[in-house]
Write a structure and sequence with these properties.
There is one protein chain. The chain has 222 residues and is mainly α. The protein is 70% helix and 2% strand. It has ten helices and two strands; from the N terminus they run αααααααβαααβ. It has a two-stranded parallel ribbon with strand order 1-2.
Length: 222
């Protein structure tokens, strides 16, 4: 990198770090380029050379968050026992939860309430699919260990959509995988946003048990 490129990368990092702090303090809806510039001792016109709008800055933060949780999931999957799909699922689940608890505002930015008026551009799609790819790969491995049983088929329209997601699996089993995925993020959101207060106290054990239940469900094929 040239000296100019290094300087630009450094300033870009400072802008994003300040923006994350503002989001932590006031939420994403309150993010203001002028306020960020003021905290950095910059004039607004200078900051616009790095991010032309609030939405451009939000997009950069969203991409960073998706890349961060995706990298966490990928590393956890690689560190688990390769021949044990259940161990891989637990490793990924616990790693994603730990990242969420350590980075609650970044988690809320990508998995919480949408920011009013913000429409995510295509730039966010590829980073967002990193964790999806890990989860679907592990769930497919769990499904290969399946035990036959009767299970109701999803509606035709849903079955077609599920077949597009995982063409090598029966739609009913893919539906179980999607339910496991929703359960993982639902449990993290309940904990992160305070909905388990005075309900569940040993949350590590509770989350691990939910992961185990999901493994058992996905293994039960139609």
């Amino acid at each position: 990198m040239t000296a100019r490129a290094r300087a630009r990368a450094e300033i870009t990092g400072e802008i994003k770090a300040t923006a994350r702090r503002h989001i932590a303090e006031g939420g994403a809806t309150a993010l203001s380029l002028r306020a960020v510039a003021r905290d950095l001792g910059m004039v607004s016109s200078a900051l616009y050379r790095y991010f032309p709008s609030r939405d451009a800055l939000l997009t950069a933060l969203i991409v960073d968050a998706f890349d961060a949780v995706g990298e966490v999931a990928e590393k956890a999957d690689r560190s688990a026992s390769p021949g044990d799909a259940g161990d891989r699922w637990r490793a990924v689940g616990h790693a994603v939860r730990r990242w969420a608890l350590d980075n609650p505002h970044e988690y809320a930015l990508v998995y919480g309430s949408p920011v009013p008026g913000y429409v995510a551009p295509p730039d966010t799609i590829e980073p967002a699919t990193r964790i999806t790819t890990v989860l679907m790969t592990v769930l497919s491995a769990i499904a290969e260990e399946s035990v036959p049983r009767f299970m109701p088929e999803p509606p035709a329209s849903t079955a077609a959509e599920l077949a597009a997601i995982a063409p090598d699996l029966p739609p009913a089993q893919t539906a179980l995988g999607m339910a496991a995925w929703a359960q993982m993020f639902g449990a993290i959101s309940l904990e992160l946003f305070g909905h388990l207060e005075s309900v569940v106290y040993d949350r590590d054990a509770f989350f691990d048990h939910l992961l185990t239940l999901a493994i058992m469900e996905v293994r039960l094929a139609p």
